[in-house]
């Protein structure tokens, strides 16, 4: 994750000439992009609002910038044309970062999922009820289209070549799409991981901790005398 972010930052902001405030704005927006990626879900029946890093840090999804104190620069008096031009420039940088990072992130996500599945030789790369990210080039920044796998489409060789995915969007009726497997990306924490975590928690028993016998060494006469001296000074309000 860190490697892909640094690589995309170099490609996106490497030759850009930004002020300090503009750079801060870009980094805050990039942080919002990273923290809006879907990690897992609360229910396979409802994929409209996936759990993101923002939910874990702030309890909700963040889609706007935090309020920041304005820094006045008396030497710079921009016109409305200058402001509009800089705004378009910053937006184009963010869109460039979004497209590049999303592509690299989804590829890394698929590779990590394939590695996990390769350990389990009897598991398919994709299974029914898996929650996946549906590839959509026209999706706005920070928004991900999630769906639940309803049916697997197999080729003549018996391997999974695609799937029928149920996509739910807020305020719209769920629709079923047919997509090739190359356009579907399993999310970071799938239903198998959640099930395994529940099994591990159920099978874990807390063993009572045994009390350790602490053997104390007898105090030396000098230490006892020093303690008595301190107590005497405290009583006399001298310490």
UniProtKB/TrEMBL annotation:
InterPro entries named in the record: DUF5641
Stretches assigned to the DUF5641 domain: 87-186
Pfam families attached to this UniProt entry: DUF5641
Region Disordered, residue ranges: 199-239
Composition skew (Polar residues), residue ranges: 199-208
Annotated Basic and acidic residues bias: 226-239
Protein known as: DUF5641 domain-containing protein
Source species: Paramuricea clavata
């Amino acid at each position: 994750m860190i490697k892909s972010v640094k690589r995309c930052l170099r490609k996106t902001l490497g030759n850009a000439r930004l002020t300090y405030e503009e750079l801060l704005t870009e980094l805050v927006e990039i942080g919002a992009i990273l923290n809006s990626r879907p990690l897992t879900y609360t229910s396979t029946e409802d994929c409209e609002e996936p759990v993101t890093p923002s939910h874990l840090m702030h309890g909700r999804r963040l889609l706007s910038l935090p309020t920041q104190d304005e820094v006045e620069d008396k030497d710079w008096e921009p016109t409305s044309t200058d402001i509009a031009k800089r705004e378009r420039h910053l937006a184009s940088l963010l869109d460039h970062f979004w497209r590049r990072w999303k592509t690299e992130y989804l590829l890394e996500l698929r590779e990590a999922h394939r590695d996990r599945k390769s350990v389990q030789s009897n598991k398919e790369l994709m299974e029914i009820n898996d929650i996946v990210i549906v590839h959509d080039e026209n999706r706005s920044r920070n928004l991900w289209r999630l769906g639940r796998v309803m049916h697997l489409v197999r080729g003549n060789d018996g391997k999974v070549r695609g799937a029928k995915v149920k996509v739910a969007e807020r305020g719209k009726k769920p629709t079923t799409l047919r997509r090739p497997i190359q356009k579907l990306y399993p999310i970071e924490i799938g239903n198998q991981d959640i099930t395994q975590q529940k099994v591990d928690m159920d099978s874990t028993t807390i063993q009572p901790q045994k009390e350790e016998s602490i053997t104390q060494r007898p105090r030396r006469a000098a230490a006892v005398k020093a303690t008595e001296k301190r107590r005497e000074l405290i009583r006399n309000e001298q310490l």
